[in-house]
């Protein structure tokens, strides 16, 4: 680990810089999928405890994000996409970011354990460790499979939300975990295709940099093809009704179609990488809508709108 942007003048950080460390854009998806996992789970939970669980998941994710930016500050400084983050821009020193990350992580796990249960707290702790160390420190700088393996870090929230309600793990929340796990590579590789120059400058072995565009495009297509039946698996096992099943088929079918357009094309200079950008944008909407339909299906079943 080296010092990021040593010439930068460190200015006093304010609350907005600490908030930026938590990656609020990513946190929205974390919170949403955690809430959906909680609402889709059988059983009920006290609203105060539900809020506490979601808050712990959000704070834990924010802590992991802060630790990620502390460790990668030198890489962020040379990438156009991340150069304006608090540390590389000189608005915050690394020690403050590190301490903030550890504090958020510790507080979130302890609160989850005391208020909700130690199974949920243990998985939350592992998810923080997974992202802050296994992905950030170990996988990302060493292998082009970093996103494939590291995708598990973002797949824990619905699993934790489910456990907060039920107190145990079943096949259904594991499938929700696997859906996000399988969604992550095509989502990030679509982004990597049109920002690969940044990754190359930073020396990060992202798939397009190491294996080339052609291989990356085919792998995006392969993962999208596998995602379609996996996204429908909750319906196949009887964990959801037809509302989710149809939605999963349509949404994943569109994901596959956009991935085919990316996988079978050859980019040309100046084309703007439009298919890749469309796939990346759709992949975000896809996960939000898919999990929203999971909750809609659950409520439709509760109120007798489907068998």
Describe this structure in a few short sentences.
The protein is mostly helical. It has 14 helices and no strands. The chain has helices at residues 15-21, 24-40, 47-71, 73-78, 94-115, 118-139, 146-150, 156-166, 171-194, 196-202, 207-210, 213-236, 242-263, 274-302.
Q: What would your notes on this structure say?
A:
- There is one protein chain.
- The protein is mainly alpha-helical and 307 residues long.
- The protein folds into two domains: 11-169, Tetracycline Repressor, domain 2 (Orthogonal Bundle); 171-307, Four Helix Bundle (Hemerythrin (Met), subunit A), CATH 1.20.120.
- It is built from 14 helices and no strands.
- The chain has helices at 15-21, 24-40, 47-71, 73-78, 94-115, 118-139, 146-150, 156-166, 171-194, 196-202, 207-210, 213-236, 242-263, 274-302.
- Residues 1-8 have low confidence and may be disordered.
Helix-strand blueprint:
Elements: H1 15-21, H2 24-40, H3 47-71, H4 73-78, H5 94-115, H6 118-139, H7 146-150, H8 156-166, H9 171-194, H10 196-202, H11 207-210, H12 213-236, H13 242-263, H14 274-302
Helix pairs in contact: 2-3, 2-8, 2-14, 3-5, 3-6, 3-8, 5-6, 6-8, 8-9, 9-12, 9-14, 12-13, 13-14
Short descriptors:
disordered N terminus, 14 helices, mainly alpha, 0% strand, Tetracycline Repressor, domain 2, Four Helix Bundle (Hemerythrin (Met), subunit A), 2 domains, 307 residues
* Unreliably modeled segments: 1-8
Which whole number gives the mean pLDDT?
90
**Principal-axis shape:** flat
Number of strands: 0
Determine the N-to-C terminus distance. Answer: 56 Å
Reading off the top of the CATH hierarchy, the class of the largest domain is best stated as Mainly Alpha
Number of helices: 14
CATH superfamily of the largest domain: UbiA prenyltransferase
- Approximate helicity band: over 70%
Q: Strand fraction band?
A: under 5%
CATH fold group of the largest domain: Tetracycline Repressor, domain 2
How many domains is the backbone divided into? 2
SSE ordering:
HHHHHHHHHHHHHH
Radius of gyration, Cα only, in angstroms?
A: 20 Å
Architecture (CATH level 2) name of the largest domain: Orthogonal Bundle
Secondary-structure-based class equals mainly alpha
């Amino acid at each position: 680990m080296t010092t990021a942007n040593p010439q930068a003048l460190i200015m006093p950080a304010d609350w907005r810089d600490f908030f930026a460390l938590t990656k609020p854009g990513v946190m929205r998806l974390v919170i949403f999928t955690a809430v959906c996992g909680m609402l889709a789970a059988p059983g009920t939970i006290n609203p105060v405890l539900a809020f506490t669980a979601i808050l712990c998941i959000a704070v834990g994710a924010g802590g992991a994000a802060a630790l990620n930016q502390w460790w990668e500050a030198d890489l962020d400084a040379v990438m156009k996409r991340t150069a304006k983050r608090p540390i590389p821009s000189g608005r915050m020193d690394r020690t403050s970011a590190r301490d903030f990350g550890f504090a958020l992580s510790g507080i979130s796990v302890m609160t989850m354990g005391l208020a909700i249960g130690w199974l949920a707290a243990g998985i939350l702790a592992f998810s923080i460790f997974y992202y802050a160390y296994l992905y950030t420190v170990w996988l990302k700088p060493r292998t082009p499979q970093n996103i494939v393996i590291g995708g598990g870090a973002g797949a824990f929230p619905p699993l934790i939300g489910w456990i907060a309600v039920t107190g145990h793990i079943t096949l259904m929340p594991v499938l929700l975990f696997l859906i996000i796990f399988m969604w992550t590579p095509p989502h990030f590789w679509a982004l990597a295709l049109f920002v690969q120059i940044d990754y190359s400058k930073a020396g990060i072995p992202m798939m397009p940099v190491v294996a080339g565009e052609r291989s990356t495009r085919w792998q995006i297509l392969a993962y999208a093809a596998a995602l379609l039946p996996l996204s429908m698996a909750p319906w196949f096992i009887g964990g959801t009704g037809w509302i989710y099943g149809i939605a999963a088929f349509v949404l994943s079918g569109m994901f596959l179609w956009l991935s085919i357009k990316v996988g079978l094309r050859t980019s040309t200079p100046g084309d703007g990488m439009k298919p890749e950008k469309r796939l990346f944008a759709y992949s975000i909407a896809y996960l939000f809508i898919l999990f929203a339909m999971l909750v809609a299906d659950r409520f439709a079943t509760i109120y007798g709108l489907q068998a």
